[in-house]
Amino acid sequence: MATIAWIGLGNMGHPMTANLVRAGHTVRGFDLSAPALEAAAADGVVAVGSSTEALEGAEIAFTMLPRGEHALAAYQGPEGIFANAAPGTLLIDCSTIDVASARTLHDEAAAAGFEFLDAPVSGGIAGAQKGTLAFMIGGESAVVEKARPFIEPMAGNIIATGEATTGQAAKICNNLMLFINMVSSSEAAVLADRLGLDHEVFYSIATVSSGDSWPLRTWYPYPGVVESSPANHDFAPTFTADLANKDIRLALAAAEETDTPLVLGSIVQEMLQKVSDAGAGDRDCSIVKKLVDGSFES
Q1: pLDDT for 73-117, tens place per residue?
Q2: Cβ burial 271-281 (10 Å sphere, 16+ → b, else e)
Q3: What is the pTM for the complete model shown?
Q4: Start-to-end Cα distance in the chain
Q5: How far apart are alpha carbons 192 and 130 in whole angstroms?
Q6: For residue 35, what are the contacts with CB-CB under 8 A and spacing of at least 6?
Q7: Which residues participate in catalysis according to the annotation?
Q8: Interatomic CA distance for residues 94 and 107, integer angstroms
Q9: Cα separation of 20 and 228, whole Å?
């Protein structure tokens, strides 16, 4: 069993570390949020007061942070991971960030003598809790195999995507599809409702027909149809609208850099922006359904 440093104990990081603890690893965790530290400690994480403390004795270090600027800050500078991790520490960033920041981290890790992987995940809070996340991992294949035993307690799928930054590329493209499908499911569900279709009947048809999708099956936007739907709990977050907006903006930025038109992506981003502007960015992204049916309230 290993000693693992973990930076970022939020909605995803906390349950991921809990699975590592259950697998027998010692996890030394840090987060800027005191409540997040307390919650992780209750599940067996050794809560510490800084990332430098988290790195003490660690063979491997994970980061799970909201944005590219947060990941860069965690690794760079005199208090950062590059300056304080022991030689030979394997570094893995599970944040969903822009490709340029991921490239910077790969380059600076190599310059500092560290092996580094970009390894964003898919599966949401439920997947993090169950240990069934899909890991998309960019970096050298030998390093991916070295990391595999540490990732397995958190994962349902571990997919090596290729060279550095391709993990982030895969995650950005996957989430673009996710949010477009989410909006299409919301529009179809609202239209079906207004045409007099029973919610459960329409759900049973769509999930075995060509309209099927993960957000349809997981986030059906009316209560009482799907157990996992945030609509059952007034859109309490499983994936916040603010984070969804951030992720689809990453796709739009990548599209601009590669001269790729994303017509649907742009429309979905505008809808998510409306949710955030109304003060509901901390609620589940599937609350976009209320924009479709006109019942949105912040």
Answers
A1: 999 999 999 999 999 999 999 999 999 999 999 999 999 999 999
A2: bbbebbebebb
A3: 0.91
A4: 47
A5: 33
A6: none
A7: 171
A8: 17
A9: 24
